[in-house]
Amino acid sequence: MDKEHSYNLSGRYRRHGIWFLVLLGLVLVLWQTAHWSRQLSLQSLQQQSQHQLRLFVANLQGQLEKYEFLPELLATNSLLVNFLHNPDDVQSINALNRYLETINKVANASDTYLMNAEGWTIAASNWLSERPFIGRNFAYRPYFQEAMKGKLGRYFALGSTSNRRGYYFAYPVRDQEQILGAVVMKVELLDFEASWSALKEEFVVTDPDGVIFISTNESWRYKSLQPLDSQVIRRIENSRRYGKSRIGTLDITRKDQLSDQVGVVNIGDPRKSDHLMLVQAMPEAGWQVHIFSSLGVVNSKVLGSLLVSAVLYTALVFLVFYAVQRRRRFIERARFEQRAKRILEQRVRERTADLTDANIRLLREIEEHRRTDETLRQTQDELIQAAKMAALGQMSSGINHELNQPLAAIRSYADNARALLERGRNSDASWNLQQIGELTERMARISSQLKVFSRKTSGQVTSVSLPAVIDNALKIVGPQLKDTGTELHRLLPAEELYVMADMVQLEQVLVNLISNAIHAVEKQPKRWIQIAAGVENGKAWITIHDSGQGISKENLGRIFDPFFTTKSEDRGLGLGLSISYRIVEMMRGTLTASNHRQGGALFTLKLDLAAQDGVSTPNQQLA
Ligand code: ADP
């Protein structure tokens, strides 16, 4: 009980252990998959973003370069130089304004204007608009200051009059070495910005202070990527670069720096997906261009790979479990078969032992039967002998008669012979002596018959002549027939008939049957017995038919039983037929009893026919 309990417990622990390992495996596989697939998708996203960023920068550069040389070209125009020398010429101011308007239109710029050395705008393409630049001073703008130093001035700022963002190119207008003023062209990048905001990535351009001034996301504009200290903010606000706009800070959290130019950041809301941030510098302009690509794609790719690997892992686990289960079942079945085989072998052994026992018992029984049989045979032989003796007893009166008669005759023949010899009648005496000789011969024959009958036999079956045996039997019962006045009818075939039998025993059977017939006809008015023989279906048959009353139906089935008799004690023992039946059976013959159609009992004896050679006749036997 305890052992079973502990077995169950250890089994449960083992099962828990396996499940724990499976789960641990799942966690490891998922973790590894997440790591790899994130790495791969990040790489691919980075490449894609890099490509987009390059395109963006190239596009922006292209946009700006288109205008870069135009102010320089304009500065060479004598119209501008002359007008700077002679600003009060009303005629030429109109012409100049128109000229600048045309150029501006053709170049598709936002504004084109001319400033004098003090920073006052003296001619402008928007001379006819509501708020023309003419008469306004932009001396504080760095692009003007740069131009006045003889260089190409570039600057991005919010237009102080127009309040629109633009990129300014300024170039000095010279007369010989003297810088008279500057020609300025403002380019708006609204269209450029709009065209890029259609993409899912966000693009941002920051100034050297890190403030965003171009952004595909409008809400990020004028915000710095890093928090700026108040001095810097004040400086920017004083420069009026971004007009009256307040400089804020973009809510950006740096989460991972993959390289100098690449990092992972979260913008605004930590619950939203992070962004991959790439940076590329535009050194001529002093700008930094940033691209922000959402990691949502990466996340969904990672999620997809996780799902696939989870499914594959589960399938693998099931496969392994299935294989293990199958193997276990196979082993169990093999064990079961082995056990069944063992049990079967055990049973076979037991059954064999049983059978051996039974066999030994059977052999013992057979041995016992054999012994019983032997005893029985012995008893039967003794019975046969007893029956013979009984028959002899019964026959003794007849024998007495048979022997006394010749004895009396011998005595008288002897007396006669003596008297004749005394008288000298030798020849007559000799006749009498001859008669004596014949009579003793006859007596010797009778005694030899009785000897044969009473003799114990070997039970050997040989070929014997049937008529000879019948004759011998008749000789034995002859006196009985004579005494009872019974007629005997013999219907025997003319030719010899040999059967397989023990001669003495067959004689005994015939004597029994004839004796019974004599008894049966004793009290009948007509007393006869018919003895017949012949061959049918390869067998020899002998019938004994009498003129008695036959056998009643109820007795017919019992007459062969030992000691069944209808006779008085001194006449019958009830052994004759049972012994005869047994003798015939031993000779492989049959003995049956029935009633003849015309009345009287009919006993039929059937025996095997014998081959003709090696034949022994009763006489030879006797001799
Ligand atoms: P037993 O002659 O000593 O009685 P058997 O075995 O020879 O013993 O015969 C058994 C019985 O069979 C006889 O008692 C008799 O009733 C019957 N039986 C035998 N032979 C004849 C016969 N020829 N006719 C009528 N009955 C017979």
Can you put this structure into words, describing what you see?
Residues 613-623 have low confidence and may be disordered. Helix content is 54%, strand content 20%. It is of the alpha+beta class. The chain folds into 4 domains: 69-188, Beta-Lactamase (2-Layer Sandwich), CATH 3.30.450; 191-297, Beta-Lactamase, CATH 3.30.450.20; 395-455; 456-623, 2-Layer Sandwich (Heat Shock Protein 90), CATH 3.30.565.10. The chain has helices at residues 2-68, 70-75, 78-85, 90-107, 142-148, 190-197, 230-239, 296-422, 426-454, 466-484, 503-521, 553-556, 576-586, 618-622; strands at residues 111-116, 121-124, 153-158, 165-175, 178-187, 202-206, 212-215, 223-224, 248-249, 252-257, 262-267, 275-282, 287-294, 462-465, 487-491, 498-501, 528-536, 539-546, 590-595, 601-608. A hairpin with a 5-residue loop joins strand 6 (202-206) and strand 7 (212-215). The two termini are 95 Å apart. A 6-stranded antiparallel beta sheet has the order 7-6-13-12-11-10. Strands 2-1-5-4-3 form a 5-stranded antiparallel beta sheet, sandwiched between helices. Helix 1 (2-68) runs antiparallel to helix 8 (296-422). The structure holds adenosine-5'-diphosphate. Adenosine-5'-diphosphate binds at residues 512, 516-517, 520, 546, 548, 551, 559, 564-567, 572-578, 601.
